[in-house]
Amino acid sequence: MDSDNRRRRVTTTRHLHDLAGSPSEDVSPLIAQSWRRSRQAGVIPDGSHLPQLQYVEDLDLRRRLVQCALPILDRLHDDLSDMSLSVALSDEHARVLVRRDNDPVLAAKLDKVYFAPGFTYAEELVGTNGVGTALETGMAVYVDGAQHYHESIQYFTCAGAPIHNPTTGRVEGLIDITGLTHTSNPLMRQLALGAARDIESALRATGSIKQQLVLGEFLVACRRRQTSVYSLSCGVFMSNEIGSRLLEPIDEAFLREEAQSMLDPSRVAQFDLRLPSGGSITVKRTLVEHGGDIAGIVLEVEATSCPTKTVQPRRTVPVFPGWRGLRSNGTGVEGS
User: Fold this and answer.
1) Cross-strand bridge partners of residue 333
2) Which helix (H) or strand (E) holds 35?
3) Which long-range contacts (CB under 8 A, 24 or more apart) does 318-323 make?
4) What ranges does the record give for the region Disordered, renumbered to this chain (predicted)?
5) What is the rounded distance in angstroms from the CA atom of residue 224 to the CA atom of residue 1?
6) DSSP label of 146
7) What is the pLDDT of residue 64?
8) Is residue 25 part of a domain?
9) Element housing 248 (H / E)
10) What are the tens digits of pLDDT across the range 74-129?
């Protein structure tokens, strides 16, 4: 069966699926479930109207994920130089961060559907696709032509593989390989999966260095004075024995969340913080850097009975300025 006939058959299957909501032998359960989620999210598959995509102007291209992924993206791009394929990196929110092209015709077609840096290809916005569906399922996927829910991207075939943080297990981002349907090959999924594993290995290596640096500063703070000490590095939050007794569980969880927003050089080094339980603490923050990047922070914390100046909690993780456009072991240490 040629690609046009197959596309028409799968598109007809999707229309029937939308009407009846029943699975079909023409598509896998993974694709059928993604179609169902796309329909429930309100995605309209009509190809005459592009989805309303979210766009972020300033991308965080200094984050560790990007720095670890760039050499692997470049190598994969070179390996695929004789094929009409594009390689892209997205973050954990399905925002495209970087795209590498080796075919100007394919690149122009991808730009036309806004599969480009800054745009979000979440499944709930675009429907079934290699980026959003892989992030939604946490699995490597292969979405071929008409298996895409939205008709505007059914001329592409894409393979996506999630990239997991080797320390926390959380999804850090995704690697995607895209080509036109008539040049597709199921091996694209294995290529994406292999690249994702290589990026995870790079994250593990750099994470170990950063965590060792932060641990060193953590132990220095523990020896310097008898106080509660906490640290955050590569998603790992840690306290000394005194710190494990200082805070209630709800307050420690709160401090861990707030520590994410303290990874910002512009914040003051010492401040008071009001806790959910009603108490207050004085926090002395030390930033630990590695190669111009922030490796983590160490917090020295004391209970405060009458705070004078309280820093209001910040719920968002800071974003560094990025590129724009469509192109481009001590005793008494506890982990929690």
Assistant:
1) 240
2) helix 29-40
3) 318/261, 318/263, 318/264, 319/58, 319/60, 320/60, 320/61, 320/62, 320/63, 321/58, 322/58, 322/59, 322/60, 322/61, 322/62, 323/59, 323/61, 323/117
4) 1-25
5) 73
6) G
7) 85
8) yes
9) none
10) 999 999 999 999 999 999 999 999 999 999 999 999 999 999 999 999 999 999 99
Query: Which residues constitute the domain of residue 307?
Result: 225-313
What tokens were used for 7?
């596309």
How far apart CA 87 and CA 79 sit, in angstroms, is 11
Contacts of 116 (CB under 8 A, 6+ apart): 96, 99, 110, 326, 327
Rg (CA), the chain: 23
63 and 191 belong to one structural domain: yes
Q: Amino acid identity of 51?
A: P
In a domain, 214, yes or no: no
DSSP 93-106: TSBEEEEEES-HHH
Q: Considering the entire predicted model, what is its pTM?
A: 0.66
Q: Which residue from 328, 318, 325, 322 is spatially nearest to 59, judged by alpha carbons?
A: 322
29 and 130, same structural domain?
yes
Round to whole Å and give the CA distance between 276 and 262.
18
Q: How many residues make up the chain in this entry?
A: 336
Q: Which of 268, 275, 10 is nearest to 144 (CA)?
A: 10
Tens digit of each residue's pLDDT (9 = 90 or more) over 189-242: 999 999 999 999 999 888 788 888 999 999 999 998 899 999 998 878 899 999
